[in-house]
């Protein structure tokens, strides 16, 4: 009887907890084409104001790479009504914080304020969009900032160039072949007029989504949004006609060198579909099966039991247009890179040949359920997800029902997707080595 009561209580709790996780939102468009999403949660006096622009590194002129990331910095310089250098002072003096980030597909800006400063956050984001000051002093200042960031995070960071080395081999024509941070020589060569033209083309309301999430009065916030963002004129529609990649049908090999490492690495990389494609979700599950924690297949076998590697990882790096599925290993002791690849290949073949166990499948389902619950644990995280699902997936309600996709994936589907994408004739094997002695 006690067990039955406990089980019933647990089921009731799980049902309540599941319902509590649902994110309620309202969305609409302004006359100028800006999409707006509101999420009201009055449990804490905090609000996030954010804007995501549908512009990333893939939108750049191939001779002017790094522009999207550069603008992530440049648009904090100031506006007609915010003096240069005052942006961060205004935010912090009002108890807030802010940041921005850029990918190959989009750029995201946000502020987190006490909820009584929601109007301030909206005004500042409208200023960034309507009244930015893009002048030579700002360009020169941020050029040095970006160069320092590249030196710190890429050039002088162990394994910092590994993804760039993979991308430039996996993509021949699509702009994903470049890096998000870009080439410094391109930024040095760019004119002020080129930066201003980039802003005019991509930083327009009809290429953006505004999200306000947290402790808000929706009626009051709607009026603020209309007042601050409504007058901003619509821009020209952004039209993309990016080149498509031919399928990889023959295996590729490559070697790259990094002066910042002492231990070599080996990567097997496969081109995969957009994160909007169901197969990408399946590949995420395969990644977790292979390397999601110390009890995962690759870690337990190659690191724990056979002690052939310091680290192994399988990851699906999926983006709006394409993805890269990568197997990564750092050898231990005398283990060769060829041995690591062979051992990882063995587990890929096992997935392609046999169904994973029912127990392993249930473990995966539990992992993804847990990730789903945690993904909406903060207001700022919810704001980011709402913007991302609208901008890149075209379906805001994925914030609530994406987990249903994972729940519906079968063991047979995992086998079939592995057979479809993870074949030796469809991949690059890259040896990433310590820099050779010049002597």
From TrEMBL:
Residues 1-20 form the signal peptide. It holds the Pfam family Peptidase_M16. Keywords: Hydrolase, Metalloprotease, Protease, Signal, Zinc. The lineage of its organism: Bacteria, Pseudomonadati, Bacteroidota, Flavobacteriia, Flavobacteriales. It comes from Winogradskyella echinorum. It comes from the Bacteria. PANTHER family: NARDILYSIN, PROTEIN YHJJ. Residues 190-367 form the Peptidase M16 C-terminal domain. Residues 36-180 form the Peptidase M16 N-terminal domain. Belongs to the peptidase M16 family. This is Insulinase family protein.
